[in-house]
Amino acid sequence: MMRHATALLAVIAAALLAACASAPLHYYTLLPGSAAPVAESATAIPFEVLTVNVPAQVDRPQLVVRQGGQSVALLEGERWIAPLADEVRGALAADLARVLPGRDVGGMAASGKPLLQVSLDVRRFDSQPGDHALIEGAWQLRWRHDGKLATQACTSRIRASVGPGYDALVQGHQQALDQLAEQMAGVARALTSGQPAACPGD
Q1: C-beta atoms surrounding 194 within 10 Å
Q2: Which of 44, 50, 60, 143 could pair covalently with 191 via S-S, beta carbons 3.0-4.6 A apart?
């Protein structure tokens, strides 16, 4: 009997391992879908998005979602296609290129040339399927031009309502990043034109 029980447990364990191994993985990106290319112009603002920081709680390959209250879940089958900080940085750069409009020089700006540097410290990246996607963080813009430096530091808290499902959740974060880029662009236009700049909501 013991021999048969051991054999049965081995079969069950093998079946469970096979089921886990065959479970499909779904990958997500915050980068916007293909769109018409941004037209180059003499007035396009050259910019670079510096390293983005994200909270340690969500800095992992799996999606981390809130289940209500203080309960969260790590979704093994739902993953980011790249590190979350890189996803946020890439999406923000793409949005800024569109809304400024700007030219992403990606750290290759020539010395002494005009350059807008963007830094972002994400303090909350909250995900609750069927309810909301929230991004909260501190950011700073630095505009270098003709040997002068103009800076502006701000904070933003953007909450997007989302429908059920993980696709809708990721789209909500895309919308939040798009709104963040719009806020940054408004401040950037003031800085680059030599006008007084104010944070959104001030």
Answers
A1: 11
A2: 143
133 forms bridges with which residues in the sheet?
127, 160
- Residue 39 has a pLDDT of 53
- Look-up: residue for tokens 């309960």? 71
Both tokens of residue 141?
């813009």
Which two three-digit tokens encode residue 185?
A: 């662009």
CA dist 144 and 115 (Å) reads: 5
Q: What angle do CA 87, 89, 95 make, to 5 degrees?
A: 100
For residue 201, which of 149, 158, 161 has the smallest C-alpha distance? 158
DSSP-based three-state secondary structure for 68:
strand
Q: How far apart are CA 87 and CA 167, in angstroms?
A: 15
Token pair listed for 111: 């010395």
Instruction: Tell me how crowded residue 177 is: count the other CB atoms within 10 A of its CB.
Output: 26
Write down how long the chain is.
Answer: 202
Q: Please count the CA atoms within 13 angstroms of the CA of 5 that sit on its side-chain side.
A: 2
Peptide bond into 101 cis (omega under 30): yes
Alpha-helical segments (H) within 78-135: 84-99
In the chain, which residues have pLDDT < 70? 1-22, 34-42, 109-110
